[in-house]
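Service request form, structural biology core

Requester: graduate student, group of Dr. S.
Request type: structure prediction, single chain
Budget code: on file
Notes: please return the result as structure tokens.

Sequence provided:
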Amino acid sequence: MQSPKKEEDDMLELGEELVAAAKRQYHKTASASSLVLSRLTSESSTVTNGSGAAHPRVESAEDPGLHDFVDAILHQGLDAEKLPHQLEKHIPELHPVWSPHNIFEQAGERERGSSSCISVLALVKNRYDIFTEPQGKNVKLKQSQWEELQELVTWIEPDAQQLQAVLVLLAIRALGKSKAVLQQLPVESRRPERAVVQVMNGYENVVPSVRWLTQRSQAYVEEALLTHELFNLAQMLQGENCPANVKQLREHIELKGDAVFRFYILFLLGFMSGLAAGNGSRFMNAKNADSTIGGIRMLQRLMNVNPTSIYWGYMGLRATKLKLPYNTPEDMVLVRLACLARIQDDRGYQTLKNSWQALGARERTSLTDHFLADGIEEPAWVFEFLPNCVANAQANPVVGLTALLDVLTDLLYNLRSFDKSGKPSLMLVDLSDMGEFIAAVQNRF
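Core staff response, request fulfilled:
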């Protein structure tokens, strides 16, 4: 059996050549055819959510002691039983009652934030037992996977200030997803990450932990948020973005430096670990860890390998893991669709392939062109929230995946009609409303 390092090297070497050859073959054969944030000042004694319910504000005048807590952890250790309560005490944004996540009616995000914080501490302190506590026996993280995660933590080598900063970041990150928050901010700050930066700098009572960060730590938090806006690892793991996003990340890190990059990777480990909540990481189990580890290990080559090779090299790793063909343009598109559909086995892949083959030749040609576009040498559209659309289409028997792909073909036709220049560009298309609509469809009339 090949080592993970050897597989990565093989896929990186293959990546750019395979994409170029696939595109040549494809183009040769293709057919021509209301919490009002402005009121949340330091003088406020209460805050109200959209329903008008009043809540005592989170007190930010007294240091909750996160710095001392982190220092004690680094020099002593973790108490598995006490850890969740300690985080709630030292990070007000994780308080079970007065957390801003609860006030903004997104309690699930508080739970994911807590899981992320527990997970990152377990990673730093090499506590496999704490990290895997919520995982079932049949899917528990393998020891070999844990060792790979430990190698990543060793490479990052976080200090106390970085650890405090990442805990605060993981606790507050999801506030940028709250519609109640976004509606109260200037239009230019309504992207999730920029919204959190705006709240950090203008509404301290909403995120009181930020007050107690050093200037260096706060800079790490802000830089990680702005980096995440440019490049979201989860989007790459799901085939949602494209090589141009990897290129943007590379250019950003060239400007910001290696320390920012390593901190961002630490954040990604915590963020991904907390996706399914739990007192530990329910998400980062044996089934899900390989894709996350593989994606991060590919990103470690960011400054030495071209973005296209990194992106399609990762897709090659997924194809190898799932034992899928990866030789033709259609193979490559189906692997990317398999990532979008979160497919884990051959049965799911065959269902996906049947949906693809039910399309007409024109639709397959249009979608192949779209899913192979890199945004570097040609225009590309990133369909944000497409994985949700795919999941909802598959779950709704009235819709189905083939119908969704048909709709995407029409959408692409309209988008291409607006930009006929053919110049390299990367454009974002928000499909969140479409995903909600797909889930609600009850007939096709």
